[in-house]
Every structure is written in C-alpha cells, then in structure tokens.
Amino acid sequence: MPSACVVGAGVVGLTTATLLQEARPDVKVTLFADKFEEATTSVGAAGIFTPSAMFRGPSQEVTWRWLADGFAHYSRLLQTPDADEAGVRELSGYTLSVNNPDAVRTPIESLTEYRLLTPQEVRSFSGSWKYGSFLKTLLVENQRHLPYLMKKFRRRGGQAISCHVTSLEELADEFDVVCNCSGLGARVLAGDHDVLPVRGQIFQVRAPWIKEFIFTDQDAYIIPGLEHVTLGGTRQFANSKLTVDEFDSRAIWEKCNRLVPSLKDAKVVHNYGHGSYGVMGAPGTAMHAVRLAVEALDAGTKARL
Amino acid sequence: MPSACVVGAGVVGLTTATLLQEARPDVKVTLFADKFEEATTSVGAAGIFTPSAMFRGPSQEVTWRWLADGFAHYSRLLQTPDADEAGVRELSGYTLSVNNPDAVRTPIESLTEYRLLTPQEVRSFSGSWKYGSFLKTLLVENQRHLPYLMKKFRRRGGQAISCHVTSLEELADEFDVVCNCSGLGARVLAGDHDVLPVRGQIFQVRAPWIKEFIFTDQDAYIIPGLEHVTLGGTRQFANSKLTVDEFDSRAIWEKCNRLVPSLKDAKVVREWVGLRPYRHVVRVEREVIKSKRGKPTHVVHNYGHGSYGVMGAPGTAMHAVRLAVEALDAGTKARL
Fold first, then answer.
1. How far is A30 from A217, CA to CA, in rounded Å?
2. Which residue from B310, B261, B239 is spatially nearest to B71, judged by alpha carbons?
3. pLDDT tens-digit readout, A49-94
4. A255–B247: do the CB atoms touch at under 8 Å?
C-alpha cells in the first residue's frame, strides 16, 4: 500500500493532507507536526482572501492558477452546509493608501466585485488617504478551519503524530512521498535560507458591530471574522520576537481607533503575534503540491510493476 | 567614442559610475538621477558593513565574492589619505538576540575580528538577550561618501544630469551601455515587481561618547558614525510611508534608551525615513533591450540591495562593471 506523509499542521499542511486523501483514497497519509491548532502560526491569521503583488509563484501563470483555484475552492465550501463549521464567510471592505495607487489594486479583481473608491469616499475615511478601493471577498477563520480540516483528515483514516521532525531524510525511510509543509521550519528541514520571518502582531477583540474590513498600507488593518475582529498589525522583516511588543500594541491600537473610533468600546480577547498568505495560498498551492505528489506515487507504482 | 550612462545617484549608482570610469577611462559616462545626496535613500543609511543571511546574490559563491570584494575595497580606502573625506572609519560593536543564535553570526567572520560573547557579557546588556557577538568592521557614512564619489566622478569627466528617467528604452537610443542602478525605481524602469520597499525610520543624534555599535534583532540599533549617531529602527515590509511615524519614533527612542541610558542626553539632529529597495536576490545582470528607435542596447542592472546599499555597492558594482565592459568590448568588435 503506497504511503505518504505531510510535515506541518498549519493551514497549508492540513489542506495538503486532506486534498491528497481526496486525490488518492488508496494512499495512507500520516501527518507529523510539533504544533497543532492554537499553537500554530495559522491560527492567528485573520484569514482574509486579499492577494497583493507580494504573493508570488514561480511564474505569473502559476500564481494566477493558485489564486483562481483557491478562490474557487473556498467559494464552493461557502455554498455547502459545512461553511459555518469550516469557518468560511463572505466579507466586503476597503483598502486605502496615502501615496500608492497600485496598493489598492488586487489580482482577483476579475473574480469578484471590485471597484475604485471616489475621492469623496476616500476622504470619508479618517486619515490622509489618497487612494481606495472596495472589494467583496472571502474570509476563512483558522480557529474553526484547522479543527474542521483535522476532523476530515481523521475521518478518512489519516493519522496525526505530534513530534518535532528534525530531518526529512529520516521520514523518507518510511514513506513513498514526503510533503514538506513546514513553513518557517523549512529553513532547517530544507536548508532554505530564502524563508524569513516577517513578524506580525495583532489584537483579537469583540466588536460585533464591525461588518467590513479596512486595509491600509501603513500597517494598520481591521478585519471582522466569525469569532472576533482582528486589529493589526506589523510586518517586521526578519524579526523573530515571539512575545507581544508594547510599542506595537500601542501603535496598532491607536491607528485602528483613529480609523474606527467606535473600537474604543471593543473588548480585547487576545493580543498576540502571527503571519501573511497561509489561508489564501493554501488550497491553490496544496492542489499543485498534491498533483506533484500523485505523479511521484504513480511513478513509484510504475517502477515496481 | 564609446558612451555609457548610469541611472541613479545613490551609493550603488555612484560607485558603479566611478568604477566604470576607472575600468574604461576612454568611455564617457553620464549619470542620470532625480535625487542627489540629501534626497537619496542612501544618505540616511548608517552605512555599517554588517552582512546577514539576508544579503543574497544568485549563488553562495557570488554573494561571498561581493562581500569579500566590498570589504577589501573599503579597507583599502581606509588606508588612504582620502579616508576621512570619503567617510570611511573602522567601527567595532555588538550584535544581540533574545532567541536566535544564528542572528549574531555574520558571513564576514573570517575577514575580520569576530567572537561570540560569553553569557556574562550578554547579560551585561540591559534586556533579555540570550546570544551575542563582537565584531570589528567598517562604516561608510554616505553624507560624506556620496559627495566624495560625485567629486571623483566629475574630476574624471563624468557628467551628472538631474532628471526623472521614465524609460531605459529612451536612454538606450543615446548610449552603448545603460547601467540601471535605480533602486526602488527599478519597479517601473525594469518592470520588476520583486523590488519592495522595506521602510526604515531613524533618529540622527549627537552623542560623541558612543564609540561602539549595538545591533539587536528586535529592530533597535545604535550606530555611531562620523557626523552623528544613528538610532534605529524599523523594517516594515511593503510599507512606503515617507513621513515620520510618531509610534515608530517612540519605540525607537525608548528601546535605544533602554539599551544605552546615557542616550537621554543625546541631542536630536533630525528624524529620517527611507525606503530600502529590497529584493530577495540583488539583481546584477546584463540584458539586451530594444531602444525606442529599435537599436539593440546592453543594459546592466544593479539594484535590489535592500539594507545593504553601502555594503553591497563596491562588490556588485565591480561585477556590473565587468558586465558593462564586456558589452562595450563586444560592441567595438562588431564595428571593426
């Protein structure tokens, strides 16, 4: 019986594992990770599907396919009875910039409702914004989505092992294919120095009156999810500080309150630190990874025949 | 007479232009830029030669060559009577990290004095640092270095034109080789979306009692230069805000003061914001483009240095100049 394993239980690892099970129900899939659910980087992500030019595949065509596949995947999930359990919702909102018209555009303009804001609309936002756009998109909240995927994974016979993987070579002894979805862990597991931490810090607050997202290119953003509203953020390049920074807390709180003054009444649930395009990239890249894994499994089978 | 032009008057553009003149004194070099000296991104850089794993060339070998060539270049300059005018000085100091032993290592350990700090030494720094190292390196202050390079450039017959270049194709009509050292401008000039701004904010202060640098991987750093001490900083990925941010000011000031309490007596000269032109790999490449009038012209790209403009300039410029000289030689051969 062919066997495969996946390293990493973030949104990318779990999506890859479940899609692999779907593509090859005959393959036993085992998942290895040292962090699950609340301990993952994924769980703090707001999970909004809003690509920018920073999401890059090896070519424009591949990048587009990943985005289109991902958007279609979550859109389908939204239409099923599982949508709520899976943490998927529709979400509209605004993107603002003080000086860069490109910053309010998005590659998925053609897939959904999108328009530029009028100067009047832009001025209605507190701050010296010059450019703005409106977008209707999707949000996937990992606090629900990760358990949903894990349940699916187990129901199909998948086995999840909690351990710290120190080398892919050791796992390779036991499996026909090893899928490395280890995020920052790939610095060590794949010896890949192109992976760098970009530190994100957020607040999670209760503010159920917030119905739309606001993104700005000055780090501040407000994203209403299902369980809470995410107030962000930071994108500190090559910074690996895992604890809350008081200066970042103050900056995030004040910038978000300036944007939306009613947030002064929001109740803080969590104040902690996290990531970028994990949720958005997961289905598209996972589909691609699964295609590659299946090719490898098929080649292995042919080699044995 | 063969002719070449360079786009960009930051440290990378000026270094490329002057090294090209040295390699080919027979070539007339013209420099085009819309920002000079005080208006450049380069001028706010502390200019310290401290590479990390984030400085990336297309291969480990090339990256190493750039670093070794650059360190040798500034070391030589340090030994000349020009050192002071050129803004070059030796500088030692410390790098600290709360949780990452790799963060206190550096690729140039073998080129200079470097050692890990003892746990006791690490604990002597205020804060919960766990790892630390000592390094003796160089600093090149652009407030002096850019005018120094420009003077050299002009003395050798170079011409500097102030203008906003909107396309390399237009310049290509007029020159045998075009060197694109436009930093963030390469997003437009080379259509390169791999170049992203990483926003940096700093204080420049007078605090002449500060003799050594302190780097931390939690954004705060203190770097004494020749004219002032630089207190930093931020590395805000994909943020292009050009004005001072009050929250960043507070964070930088307080973090630096915690590290070195005597900074409370430092006199603030100014606050400054710059957008580092970051690219995952610094692009030093030659290609042939069609000029506006259809002439095939060599373009040598040299951009994407991010935090490492000063540090990367000589090594990458030497590489770019080699590519440019090959192109000029090829052009000459074609005509014979």
1. 40
2. B310
3. 998 877 888 888 999 999 999 999 999 999 999 999 999 999 999 9
4. yes
CA distance B146 to chain A (A): 27
Distance separating alpha carbons of residues B33 and B313, to the nearest angstrom? 17
A105: how many CB neighbours lie within 10 A of its CB?
A: 18
CB pair distance less than 8 Å for B237 and A198: yes
Residue A28 structure tokens: 């036993």
Asked if B239's CB is within 8 angstroms of A219's CB, the reply is yes
Helix (H, G, I), strand (E, B) or coil at B219: coil
- CA dist list (Å): A251 to A47, A93, A98, A218, B218: 22, 22, 17, 11, 16
| H helices present in chain A, as ranges | 11-23, 60-78, 119-123, 142-155, 168-172, 186-189, 246-259, 278-304
Whether B278 contacts B306, CB under 8 Å: yes
d(CA B318, CA B88): 19
Contact B27, B4 (CB under 8 A): yes
SS3 annotation, B222-263:
EEECCCCEEEECCCEECCCCCCCCHHHHHHHHHHHHHHCHHH
* CB contact A217 to B (< 8 Å): yes
**Minimum-distance CB partner of A239 among B193, B219, B280:** B219
- Output the CA torsion B3→B8→B10→B11 (10° steps): -40
> What is the ipTM score, two decimals?
0.85
Question: What residues in A contact B280, CB-CB < 8 Å?
Answer: 194
The string of pLDDT tens digits covering residues B242-282 is 999 999 999 999 999 999 999 999 999 999 999 999 999 99
b/e A5-25 (16+ beta carbons within 10 angstroms → b): bbbbbbbbbbbbbbbbbeebe
**A236 Cβ under 8 Å from any chain B Cβ:** yes
Interface membership of B288 toward A (CB under 8 Å): no
CB pairs under 8 A between A and B: 75
Which residues in chain A touch residue B52, judged by CB atoms under 8 angstroms apart? Answer: 238
Give A116-135 as a DSSP string: EPPHHHHHTSSS---EEEEE
Is the distance from CB of A48 to CB of A139 less than 8 angstroms?
Answer: yes
Instruction: State the Cα–Cα distance between residues A223 and A218, nearest whole angstrom.
Output: 15
The model's pTM is: 0.90
Token pair listed for B116 = 């890990």
